[in-house]
UniProtKB/TrEMBL annotation:
It is found in: Endoplasmic reticulum membrane. Keywords: Endoplasmic reticulum, Membrane, Transmembrane, Transmembrane helix. InterPro entries: LMF, LMF1/2_C, LMF1/2_N. Residues 365-494 form the Lipase maturation factor 1/2 C-terminal domain. Pfam families: LMF1, LMF1_C. The keyword Glycoprotein does not apply. The chain crosses the membrane at residues 74-94, 100-119, 126-144, 226-251, 321-342. Its main location: endoplasmic reticulum. It comes from the Bacteria. This is Lipase maturation factor family protein.
Length: 512
């Protein structure tokens, strides 16, 4: 039985616990986000209905369970199933059995969420969607409490963390000049998609500190990731640096589960012994010796039973046949993922580096990156309605308020991450591209109808469920106020109206 330990990493139990439960927790958030928002955005009566999307393709090449038909009820059942399975993994229940139980659980999450993402269209076109899918498939092969973590799978998981961090670093270096002259954070905290409660305080830091932030970011993303594969304790130190820098980003803004994913994946390089040396109150879960003792006591079956195991000494270890099968499965999965990693590796060093791209329809072996350039001005799209018959500038125009998107000048931005507000995120992209997008006109149409499902995605409906007579769209420049101005006015934003982008429209205009 000792040969099995050659392919195992008994000193990485903490890493496995964080990886499996952390990724499952992110799946829980993702399914909760979909349960609350998908029907209104993409459901049978959504802005971009999935039935129309599926029927528009003679042969939908993306794998999804909705290939044979979509209904909001089926979507809700799938989300509920995902919540239950991910919740069980967070509690550690599947991990108490043999390795194939958490494997099946994670593959269920992967299939369910991939089915949602592949019909999610623009509302699911974010890099962290494919990151969550790849992370879920990868950690599925980390085994259970009844066997030590497979070394090969830990390496593949560290490779995923490397691609995430190094890819983001390379995108920035090859992107806007602001990343090379260290001025990117003069603007980023103010212009990022969804500011958080502390974003204004970060923005008001002295400019020399902003340059230090950029240098620290380059170091964390371009240098540190290589040390995830270094001998201990260097690998754990590298992981700690990734965790600290990602926590800094979490404090400064809202980026759904992107930063939390990086934190969780970084634990693939964390050794129990190093953690115990720094934090003596953290126990060393298992050791090579304890696993060897368990292996020597094996009687050829899962001796711990289906729900044995957990913390402390291993209660059981698979016999020769089972251990051999599981080792082969884990090693084969690692080789498979390593082969798929060739394309993203090639992309990392390409002059035309792709950002957040999948090279296969299963979304495994992807390339990642974010904010290759930084927006210099924050222009917000403002949607207004009126009950007046005459839609002139003198009409009583009332603004629709969003949950995460900036609105009132005095309102403190909320912390939403890791929860993903999909409508608010897409509203940020409109000024960078165009307001004349299909989903946005459908959104305006729903507001004219006072559609309850869409109104629930907003923070405030100025008409309290009543249908407005007219809707118009304009834009405005948003800038964080200085400390002096805030003391005088208690306003966090300086708002400068710009121009009307979409003239007042009524229900018959949109229907036509």
């Amino acid at each position: 039985m000792d040969w099995v330990l050659w392919f195992s990493a008994p000193d990485y139990e903490l890493a496995r616990i964080v990886l499996q439960r952390g990724v499952a927790a992110l799946y829980f958030v993702a399914f909760l986000s979909s349960l609350n928002q998908f029907p209104a955005l993409l459901g049978e009566r959504g802005l971009l209905p999935v039935p129309d999307f599926v029927s528009a393709f003679h042969r939908l090449r993306r794998p999804t369970l909705f290939r044979w038909g979509y209904s909001d009820r089926l979507l809700r059942w799938m989300c509920a199933g995902g919540l239950v399975v991910s919740g069980l993994i967070v509690l550690g229940i599947p991990q108490l059995g043999p390795p194939w139980i958490p494997l099946v659980a994670f593959l269920i999450l992967w299939v369910l969420y991939m089915s949602i993402v592949n019909v999610g269209q623009t509302f699911y076109g974010f890099g962290w969607e494919m990151l969550l899918l790849e992370a879920g498939f990868t950690v599925a092969f980390l085994g259970s409490d009844q066997s030590p973590p497979p070394t090969a799978m830990l390496l593949v998981t560290a490779w995923l963390a490397f691609r995430l961090e190094f890819g983001a670093g390379m995108i920035k270096i090859r992107g806007g000049q602001e990343w090379r002259d260290l001025t990117a954070l003069y603007y980023h905290h103010e212009t990022q998609p969804m500011p958080g409660p502390l974003s204004r305080q970060f923005h008001l830091l002295p400019k020399p500190l902003h340059k230090v932030e950029v240098v620290g970011n380059h170091f964390a993303q371009l240098v540190v990731p290589f040390f995830l594969f270094a001998p201990q304790p260097l690998a754990t130190i590298a992981a700690a640096i990734v965790v600290v820098t990602q926590l800094w980003l979490i404090l400064s803004g809202n980026f759904a589960w992107l930063n939390w994913s990086a934190i969780v994946l970084a634990f693939s390089a964390v050794s129990d012994r190093v953690v115990h040396a720094v934090l003596p109150f953290m126990p060393v879960q298992y050791s090579s010796e304890s696993w060897a003792v368990a292996a020597s006591r094996s009687d050829g079956v899962w001796s711990g039973g289906l729900f044995a195991g957990g913390l402390g000494e291993p209660t059981g270890y698979p016999g020769d046949v089972f251990s051999w099968i599981w080792s082969v499965v884990a090693l084969a999965a690692a080789v498979f993922l390593a082969v798929l990693g060739y394309q993203p590796l090639k992309n990392l060093f390409s002059r035309r580096q792709l950002m957040n791209a999948a090279f296969n329809r299963w979304m495994l072996g992807n390339t990642y990156g974010a904010f290759g350039s930084v927006t210099k001005r924050r222009v917000e799209i403002v949607v207004e309605g009126t009950l007046d018959d005459d839609p002139s500038d003198d009409a009583d125009w009332r603004e629709y308020r969003f949950k995460g998107k900036p609105g009132e000048p005095g309102r403190l931005p909320r912390q939403w991450a890791p929860y993903h507000l999909r409508l608010d995120w897409l509203m940020w992209f409109l000024p960078l591209r165009t307001v004349h997008e299909e989903w946005f006109y459908a959104f305006l149409f729903k507001l004219l109808e006072a559609d309850p499902a869409i109104l629930r995605l907003l923070r405030a409906d100025p008409f309290h469920g009543e249908r407005p007579r007219w809707i118009r769209v304009r834009n405005a420049l948003y800038e964080f106020s200085s400390r002096e101005r805030f003391r005088e006015t208690h306003e966090r934003w300086n708002i400068t109206p710009l121009r009307v982008l979409i003239r007042p429209i009524e229900l018959r205009d949109v229907a036509a």
